[in-house]
Amino acid sequence: MSTFGQAFKVTTFGESHCKSVGCIVDGCPPGLKLTEADIQVQLDRRRPGQSNLTTPRSETDTVTIQSGTELSYTLGTPICMFVPNKDQKPHDYSETDFFPRPSHADWTYLQKYGIKASSGGGRSSARETIGRVAAGAIAEKYLKAHGVEIVAFVSAVGPVRLDFLDDISGDNGKILSDLINTVTRDQVDKNITRCPVDSASEKMAEEILKRKEEKNSIGGIVTCVIRNCPVGLGEPCFDKLEAKLAHAMLSIPATKGFEFGSGFQGTKLSGSEHNDPFVSDGKGGLKTIKNHSGGIQGGISNGEHIYFNVAFKPAATISIGQESSKYDGSSGVLEARGRHDPCVLPRAVPIVESMAALVIMDALMIQNSRALSNSRLPPIPENLRAINPLGQKVKLT
Amino acid sequence: MSTFGQAFKVTTFGESHCKSVGCIVDGCPPGLKLTEADIQVQLDRRRPGQSNLTTPRSETDTVTIQSGTELSYTLGTPICMFVPNKDQKPHDYSETDFFPRPSHADWTYLQKYGIKASSGGGRSSARETIGRVAAGAIAEKYLKAHGVEIVAFVSAVGPVRLDFLDDISGDNGKILSDLINTVTRDQVDKNITRCPVDSASEKMAEEILKRKEEKNSIGGIVTCVIRNCPVGLGEPCFDKLEAKLAHAMLSIPATKGFEFGSGFQGTKLSGSEHNDPFVSDGKGGLKTIKNHSGGIQGGISNGEHIYFNVAFKPAATISIGQESSKYDGSSGVLEARGRHDPCVLPRAVPIVESMAALVIMDALMIQNSRALSNSRLPPIPENLRAINPLGQKVKLT
Amino acid sequence: MSTFGQAFKVTTFGESHCKSVGCIVDGCPPGLKLTEADIQVQLDRRRPGQSNLTTPRSETDTVTIQSGTELSYTLGTPICMFVPNKDQKPHDYSETDFFPRPSHADWTYLQKYGIKASSGGGRSSARETIGRVAAGAIAEKYLKAHGVEIVAFVSAVGPVRLDFLDDISGDNGKILSDLINTVTRDQVDKNITRCPVDSASEKMAEEILKRKEEKNSIGGIVTCVIRNCPVGLGEPCFDKLEAKLAHAMLSIPATKGFEFGSGFQGTKLSGSEHNDPFVSDGKGGLKTIKNHSGGIQGGISNGEHIYFNVAFKPAATISIGQESSKYDGSSGVLEARGRHDPCVLPRAVPIVESMAALVIMDALMIQNSRALSNSRLPPIPENLRAINPLGQKVKLT
Amino acid sequence: MSTFGQAFKVTTFGESHCKSVGCIVDGCPPGLKLTEADIQVQLDRRRPGQSNLTTPRSETDTVTIQSGTELSYTLGTPICMFVPNKDQKPHDYSETDFFPRPSHADWTYLQKYGIKASSGGGRSSARETIGRVAAGAIAEKYLKAHGVEIVAFVSAVGPVRLDFLDDISGDNGKILSDLINTVTRDQVDKNITRCPVDSASEKMAEEILKRKEEKNSIGGIVTCVIRNCPVGLGEPCFDKLEAKLAHAMLSIPATKGFEFGSGFQGTKLSGSEHNDPFVSDGKGGLKTIKNHSGGIQGGISNGEHIYFNVAFKPAATISIGQESSKYDGSSGVLEARGRHDPCVLPRAVPIVESMAALVIMDALMIQNSRALSNSRLPPIPENLRAINPLGQKVKLT
Q1: Are strands D278-280 and D286-288 parallel, antiparallel or unpaired?
Q2: What is the mean pLDDT of residues C24-50?
């Protein structure tokens, strides 16, 4: 349904043409400094009309906090956030309304609910993601206090792909590793494609503009890294951290796949190639020297950078005529009206970051419950080395 | 945590060396004919020792139903299922116990819980999946009454890959499509690799045996198809059907990625190439002629075959000596003892099927709630074409 | 937290002095005719300023539906509802702010969250119940289509009590039974106390006015009946229908107790006195002739009228000076400012009804899932009388 | 359904005549010392055959821990506990099987599920509570490490009632207060009625024996106190601590009502009588001098003793002939066979304690999440007195 998270719960609402869209965030830690400005920055990165690569439709998407804060501090109570829809009027009939749009949600919504919003995508519209981004911005604000950094970027647009997507060995692995270690949102935002590799970005922009001229669309891939993730997050066996990330990412409209760490490429390797040996981190703990695990082992974060790829299909809304069936079964040619994104990838970047923040925030709060509950128990005796190999009270983070 | 599902809820328990493993299934529809034999068949496909490609450890994994049925019918009450662990004794100390195993869950479990099971993988052991498979078998039994068929098979072992994994266009697309339309469990099981394509299966078996001789391991991919899935399943916007499938699959130990329909390859296509036009199904409804959507549009099943790939890394347990750090930070060479699977893929097949069954079953029961609730309302007036384009009461499935 | 329900989920937001209060209803059946007028009627019964028995503060509490409907029909998507707070400004400091108000939530909120809203009750304010009433009105609209009637009324104000509260035998039982069978909202609303028994109502009004003059407050009891509740609702063993009702009622501010059917009085009876024998209902089913069970047996509705009592303490906010400690531990006399309800009972009536509607609606949708899932299985063989004593397919409602 | 709790989750299974009953506890803090002996003690207090006041059926109810511990420490993984049913065989037909037992769950289970267990109460049997008591014992073991004490006792059997149940003012209030402050399980268990007041206990025993001789049964009340409950537990606005307690108590078979603190009697008081003024606790905090609030204000524990009453109806199973309808609508006289408890109250005591422990444990773990999450934020500035009236960092417990 429309709620995500167990401890840090987000419930979104809103269709493409209703009065407003937004969300309620329940379970936010009290005492967090928070104003609308903290949230608006990611909404601005998500909104349409930022460049000639996106839909020309202009919306300001200005958020207000309705509840849950006072004097700029969170009260620990539900935070309702609100963005008005400028265009609320369900549209007039036209020929196109008799067609369920191919690869859109028109047909399945009608089958599932027996009713569907009359225009735009209704609840399957990208406007639904406004609530996610607003909630994610709160999670990020909290996580920054722990040093967590989340940066996503476009790594492929159609056939234009950063090399590591197809081969993580050798030099490509090095490039991937460098990006994961250092990439910043500033670097990502300096290119309108949100690909921080200039040479690739130029080709991506060309690809997008070509598709735009064709009245067509194109897919691509977003890569995301989470740095300084606290150790110990993720709830086996069903809510492993990668499972929650996969769930979150595949809930974003237009996504087709998720892989983390070595991902699908890792299937080609042998165990001795793929395994991540441990070394001392010099601070009493361990770290890994490779990171094929993508920062997650056994479903639990290990302190290394978490990185993953998310596949997006080409936007289903295109202006080229498409031969397809009407609702009544008769066939015709659908000539879509209106404006659309030829490529959703640049705007998907803050959405991926937001969903990542929601997953990490929720997992952190759940682990905080365990950690504090455990810390109030007497230490496990040192001689029980079998279950306590460090021979000491492990201080849960 | 250890519960999966909202309406059809599965809670698993058990570590590698405790007294027993199993699960409670809560929310099973009452009146389903069910005996242990229905469950044992999938447990037998999952258990070790089925061929020389898997671990030689022999366990019978015999299940008993403890509660929730009478005279072979489900009562609608919690069904507890139970498989004893033959070897319950936590092992003696040895040198290897001072090492967290690379790419295993030893280190992260210790960090998360401050304590870990002394031997085997504890809760991260593959034995945890017994509860999933037992529960999945019940879901499948119910779903078969609706005609749902779920078949998974091995499509890649290391570098040996069925061609469609790298290219879904042209002939490869045809081969993929044929497999998806027709593959049966009998065809899958006739090869010990559980790859139904004989020529590929032979090469896969060679690859696995080579890795076994090397005391190494190898990864691979499982492809799964769900046929005759009811229309309308999946709960936007966060519990889209693909999001729940991704969550389920990434919760299986050793998984690294998930893609459905056109998946990562779909990112390279334009919208006009990728979109699935509708045609009349001749029965008053619509169907698609391509199926790049993989049976899911807008997060909701559309009646076409659902298909997806799941990436598995090479098993982390290998017998080759590995230079790695001990818990105390000192380095050494870990020479792992014991027997292990050189390749988890053949045994992963029923696990993937089981998790798929749990997702579909849960989504079906949630949609059943909506469908019956809706059916008790008066029809929407025919003239409200905007939200009811079929101009009639849509009978929710 | 702030979400109630599993299938029909309500998430409320809002403090006493933030920008707005309201809720999101997720999981509402699609195709329900719904406009703001359906909701406003119950909000009007809840709002302050309805008579000289309630707080003179005047608020219109006008609701708008922000999402989830189109052309006056629900889409099956989240319905966000919104009521602006007229007075949003956190107040200026005053002497009273140094006191946590006795029997209020000031102290516990501060202990729990480390921060608290500066004025009014924050989240513990009665304004929080606006979201509940708005959501309950939607549930009621749906339930009315099934013939469900929910009517609550005031049965006690301080020492003025309808007799059946203290003795359900003989004539008192008859009076209770008559009220339960026939009382309507119109009858309830014709008295400003919302007690439909005129003689008692007059004494209650006197009691309230006396307390108002004293700058004091007084408690009381609301009795509620649910007529025509579908059979089979409630989810043993933890979510029995009475358990959910108790949860719902005790979540209303100022409540102290809940009893259903024979309630606390039933503890005095013997089994032979208390048991409800069955008789044929003349339609192929059974009914009970007494109803000490209060319409619920084994945690499941049996089709008889469900009735229960909810105890409300006297409002904690009073204007009489109270000797109490300040936050800093020094003692003083708190002279509360402002206006308050001398008795919350009349305004509690629609809140009790709303929470009852939410419980029944959620339970109905959960049972609908089971019923439709079961109906798709073949019937249980007739000869299995042990588990199927009717010897036939039981048609789940 | 059969899961209780969010952070400390208990899922029970088992009918009266299946192979075993028990539960899975998920989310237990790791590192808790735990053996079967910790659990058996409460199961022994719950089991039948303890005195001539309870059913003569003898069952040992011996528990084994199947998973989740090693070397007597919890691993933080699911703990499955298991009690075999000695008598597993569904019974032979007899005349009584054609009757749904009055005020039992036979009829409603059949209506809800379309099928019912053939003998005993199936899932509505008191044997279901074994899993609750086993889980509650773990919660209690953890809570004891925090000094929490939970003691329940029988305060009424039929007409024999401790005086404070009808009047909490004056001397009765003093007696209640003394009991709440000091009563121990040893004191409770020294009387077979589990009423610690000797004079009343004798009369209760007489009442029970009288009803036993009559082949009848009798109801009563359990009073429970929770001492040293941490401050800050309970999750407004829907999961207030009293709401969760009410939910838990009303989920116990045969319960009819719940009241906490002043309860239903509090409805008769004025605000100035009822309010609990604060005084300094001499340790930098505040306490209340009366405790009409029953340890909970605004839905949140305030550190005072939590106390509440739970009403139990007379057991529905009696051996006196009852005129009632058969399943087929024909009437007859049901002459119940077998042995039964004439009064469930003595055995209900550990069940009430267990459910109380589950509620407090779950609430504590949820608050621990908030507290640790908050503690990692910078303090709120001292000058924001409006929302931070203590002018300092509040250290959440």
Answers
A1: antiparallel
A2: 94
**Using 50, 70 and 90 to split pLDDT, how confident is the model at B247?**
very high
What's the pLDDT band for C9 if we cut at 50, 70, 90? very high
Instruction: Indicate which residues of A carry an active-site annotation.
Output: 17, 104, 341
Chain C residues touching B32 at Cβ < 8 A? 377
pLDDT bucket at C386, cuts 50 / 70 / 90: confident
Report how far residue B172's alpha carbon sits from residue B179's, in angstroms, rounded to the nearest whole number: 11
- The pLDDT mean for chain A works out to 93
Per-residue pLDDT reduced to its tens digit, D61-95: 999 999 999 999 999 999 999 999 986 555 555 77
C-beta atoms of B90 and D70 within 8 A: yes
| Touching D: C residues 242-281, CB under 8 Å | 242-251, 253, 255-264, 266-280
* Active-site annotation holds for C17: yes
- Residues of chain A with Cβ-Cβ distance to D70 below 8 Å are 386-387
Task: With CB atoms and an 8 Å threshold, state whether A272 touches B320.
Answer: yes
Beta strands in C67-219 (DSSP E): 69-70, 73-74, 79-84, 149-157, 160-161
Q: Is the peptide bond before C18 cis (omega within 30 degrees of 0)?
A: no
Cβ of A114 under 8 Å from any chain D Cβ? no
pLDDT band at D375; cut points 50, 70, 90 = very high
Quick: pLDDT tens for C302-328.
Answer: 999 999 999 999 999 999 999 999 999
Give C327-360 pLDDT, tens digit per residue.
Answer: 999 999 998 766 678 999 999 999 999 999 999 9
Is there a contact between A70 and C117 if contact means CB atoms under 8 Å apart? yes
Separation CA D136–CA A291 (nearest Å): 42
D residues 74-93 closer than 8 Å to A (CB):
75-77
Number of Cβ within 10 Å of residue B339's Cβ equals 12
- Candidate from B12, B78, B115 with C-beta closest to D12: B78
Residue type, A309: N
Whether C341 is catalytic is yes
Q: Where in chain C does DSSP place strands (E)?
A: 3-4, 9-13, 20-26, 64-65, 69-70, 73-74, 79-84, 149-157, 160-161, 220-227, 255-260, 278-280, 286-288, 296-297, 300-301, 306-312, 322-325, 331-334
Q: What is residue B284's predicted lDDT score, i.e. its pLDDT?
A: 86
Is the Cβ pair B113, D70 closer than 8 Å? no
Best mutation target among D267, D370, D372 (most C Cβ atoms within 10 Å) is D267
Q: Assign D53 a pLDDT band (cuts: 50, 70, 90).
A: confident
| C92: pLDDT strictly greater than 60 | no
Q: What is the mean pLDDT of residues C21-25?
A: 98
- The shortest CB-CB distance from D286 to any of C2, C271, C329 is to C329
CA distance D130 to A278: 45
Predicted confidence (pLDDT) at residue D186 exceeds the cutoff of 80: yes
Dist. CA A127–CA A72, nearest whole Å: 27
Specify the pLDDT at position C397: 54
User: Are the CB atoms for B325 and A277 separated by under 8 Å?
Assistant: yes
State how far residue D137 is from chain A, nearest Cα, in angstroms.
Answer: 16
Q: The tokens of C34 are what?
A: 């719904």
- The crossing angle, in degrees rounded to 10, of helices A345-375 and A241-250 is 150
Query: How is residue A16 written in tokens?
Result: 């493409």
Domains in chain A and their CATH numbers? 3-375 (3.60.150.10)
Is-above-0.80 flag for pTM?
A: yes
A383 touches chain B (CB under 8 A): no
Give yes or no for D380 touching A (CB within 8 A): yes
Report the distance separating Cα B214 and Cα B314, nearest Å.
Answer: 13
User: Chain D neighbours among A 133-162 (CB < 8 Å)?
Assistant: 142, 145-146
The answer for B 338-377 residues in CB contact with A (under 8 A) is: 367, 370, 374
